[in-house]
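Input structure tokens:
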């Protein structure tokens, strides 16, 4: 997260909020933020939110939709929220926003590991 310049704004039960500024090294050949950078931002929020209950959680699946181009200098936020949590799995929604504008939407499901005896 440090290497990518991701800043943790908050983490609480089932939720996480990250922020970053798009830098030149985050751009693709079209001078837009690379999809992998946006995915990494969302994935970091996903990991923090899904592991916030004190039970180790590992990704089973994830999906991202890209809606808007993002440029160098843009400030982005990743806002993760828990949509459903069961005993063994949980699903999260992560919105990537530029101000009030939704630029990408990530969903992910985790497997919740058993605590060590």
């Amino acid at each position: 997260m440090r290497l990518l310049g991701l800043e943790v704004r908050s983490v609480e039960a089932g939720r996480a909020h990250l922020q970053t500024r798009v830098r030149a090294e985050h751009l693709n050949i079209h001078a837009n933020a690379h999809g992998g950078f946006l995915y990494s931002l969302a994935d970091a929020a996903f990991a923090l939110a899904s592991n916030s209950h004190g039970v180790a959680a590992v990704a089973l699946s994830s999906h991202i939709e890209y809606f808007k181009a993002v440029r160098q200098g843009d400030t982005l936020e990743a806002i993760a929220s828990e949509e459903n949590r069961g005993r063994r799995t949980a699903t999260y929604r992560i919105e990537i926003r530029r101000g009030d504008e939704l630029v990408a939407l990530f969903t992910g499901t985790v497997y919740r590991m058993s605590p060590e005896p």
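The two ends are 31 Å apart (CA to CA). Helices lie at 35-50.
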